[in-house]
Amino acid sequence: MPYLLAIESSCDDTSAAVIGDGAVLSNVIAGQDIHRAYGGVVPEAASRAHFESIIPVVDAALQRANVRKKQLDAIAFTRGPGLLGSLMVGVSFAKALALALGIPIIDVHHLQAHVLAHFAEEPKPSFPFLCLTVSGGHTQIVLVRSPLEMEVLGKTLDDAAGEAFDKAGRMMGLPYPAGPEIDQLSQNGIARFAFPEPKIRGLDFSFSGLKTAIRYFLRDETAKNPDFIRENLPDIAASVQDTIVRILMSKLKRAAKETGISEIAIAGGVAANSGLRQALLREGEKRNWKVYIPRIEYCTDNAAMIGMAGYYKFLAGEFAPQDIAPVARWEMG
Question: Where are the domains of the chain?
Answer without folding.
Answer: 3-116+298-315, 126-294
